[in-house]
């Protein structure tokens, strides 16, 4: 048991150190020697857990995906309207990007590999599908216009968020990301909600999900 715990701790140390290097230098720029040095382990330890840099990068993308989907599922259990859950989802994605190097690294690697048609689409497809299901419920609940097409709205929302966080990274290193996501919803909600529901826009924009630290 002690040996298993030590191996798990080493694996986590490798992933954390690699994520920091991938975030800083990208997949192509990160060298295994730099990852080993940053993680404070030996090459032997790295190769015991991961066969190659690509294997390590794919694992980090998978971890980023797992973290994101876990929050999607948790937000789906909140006892609030579907439109509030969509807003919560975007703000939680922003919080993860700001606070979690694994999430940042996973996003950077995915975008970098996508330039060569090698990037996995699953993280974005799952975000879009989750948003689509919530948008469908929001239409049923009367919080979205009846003629809103949920698949198109979901693709737009995730695309808009991706653009907002990218510009925030370029201009302020994401220090203003929370405000920029709120701005996005401030512009978007009046155009997609029935006029009879506009009095709830301020409340919906304030919707946030707070992770349970005991989980």
Give me a quick take on this structure.
With 215 residues, the protein is mainly alpha-helical.
Overview of the structural elements:
The chain is mainly α. The protein has a domain at 57-206: Tetracycline Repressor, domain 2 (Orthogonal Bundle), CATH 1.10.357. The protein is built from 10 helices and no strands. Helix 1 packs across helix 2, helix 1 (2-29) crosses helix 6 (101-114) and helix 4 packs across helix 6. The mean pLDDT is 90.
Instruction: Please give the number of β-strands.
Output: 0
| Contiguous runs where pLDDT drops below 50 for at least 5 residues | none
Largest sheet: none
Q: According to CATH, what is the topology of the domain at 57-206?
A: Tetracycline Repressor, domain 2
CATH secondary-structure class of the domain at 57-206? Mainly Alpha
What is the mean predicted local confidence, pLDDT?
90
Q: From the 3D coordinates, which CATH architecture of the domain at 57-206 would you assign?
A: Orthogonal Bundle
Number of helices: 10
- Which overall shape is indicated by the principal axes computed on the Cα atoms? elongated
Beta fraction of the residues? Answer: under 5%
Helix content: over 70%
| Category from helices, strands and their pairing | mainly alpha
CATH H-level superfamily of the domain at 57-206: Tetracycline Repressor, domain 2
**Cα radius of gyration in angstroms:** 19 Å
Pfam families: TetR_C_45, TetR_N
GO molecular function, one term: transcription cis-regulatory region binding
Keywords: DNA-binding, Transcription, Transcription regulation
DNA-binding region: 31-50
């Amino acid at each position: 048991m002690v040996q298993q715990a030590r191996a798990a701790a080493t694996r986590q140390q490798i992933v954390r150190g690699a994520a920091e290097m991938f975030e800083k230098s990208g997949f192509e720029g990160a060298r295994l020697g730099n990852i080993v040095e940053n993680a404070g382990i030996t090459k032997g330890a790295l190769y015991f857990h991961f066969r190659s840099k690509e294997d390590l990068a794919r694992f980090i993308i998978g971890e980023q995906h797992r973290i994101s989907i876990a929050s999607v599922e948790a937000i789906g259990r909140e006892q609030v309207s579907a439109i509030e859950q969509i807003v919560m989802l975007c703000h939680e994605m922003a919080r993860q990007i700001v606070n979690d190097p694994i999430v940042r690294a996973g996003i950077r690697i995915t975008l970098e590999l996508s330039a060569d048609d090698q990037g996995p689409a699953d993280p974005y497809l799952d975000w879009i599908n989750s948003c689509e299901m919530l948008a469908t419920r929001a239409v049923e609940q009367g919080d979205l216009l009846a003629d809103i097409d949920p698949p198109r709205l979901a693709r737009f929302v995730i695309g808009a968020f991706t653009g907002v966080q990218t510009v925030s990274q370029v201009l302020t290193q994401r220090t203003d990301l929370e405000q920029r996501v709120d701005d996005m919803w401030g512009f978007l909600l009046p155009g997609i909600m029935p006029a009879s529901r506009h009095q709830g826009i301020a409340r919906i924009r304030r919707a946030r999900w707070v992770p349970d630290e005991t989980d």
